[in-house]
Amino acid sequence: MTAEQQAPPPSPLGPLARYEKNLIDRIADFNDPRQEWRRLFSELLGTFFLVLAAAGGGMMGHAFPGVISHGAAVVAPALTVMAIILFMGKISGAHLNPAVSIAFALRRDFPWWRVPGYVITQLAGATLAALFLRAVINVSAKYGSNYPASGYSAGAAFWMELILTMGLVSVILGTASGAQNVGIIGAFGVGGYIALAGLWGSPISGASMNPARTFGPDLVGTTFTSYWVYVAGPIAGAVLAVGIAFVLRGRGGDKSAAGAAQGDMFTEVYESGQS
To answer: N or C end: fewer C-beta atoms under 10 angstroms in the chain?
Structure first.
């Protein structure tokens, strides 16, 4: 046989068709129930690291006064989220936040039946982080939680959490959808937004934007002061962000957005010219 006769036939699929086929394969792989434990572990671990940085800033600041600045306290969790998306986003989608899981489900980019498992593991990861911080730093976890600022009502904190989360989820949905899908580069947009929102919005509400982030320290610190703000505000903001996404881009459920929301656990490498 000649070298030409031994070579495999060229793929009958064009570049776009190959891309669509690969994406469908990845989503099908995500739906494999045998891989569910990996996704849930990814959410637990990712939320653990997020709360480690977010609650750790306040708790370290209480243990070592003057060491942790306001800027450092809000930028550290933003950089942590960026890193988590980059190194674990392809496993579970790196939601790390019940409001994000709900928003993806409302956009039809994520199946509703997966939401309870994601939320439970997010809450568990946040709680484990608060327990770790309390054991190591030896201060109450309440110093790592979020509360309305002195002199401001719970209502003011609610509106702040709502508007901040609306912006956060809008960024997440926007970078995960259609022509705006920028893959892992979206991590920089999400991390950048969290930092900017915290720099100006945290004095009133703490800029939690995440029911799990506040739940862990509140549970370990046994102080649920105005916790409803940090559930109702982010969820309401996420719902509004879904409405904004509909106005800007129409209905969800496109393949690229589903791939971003659900992770990409497909391990086969596709080279140019191969199916």
So the answer is: N
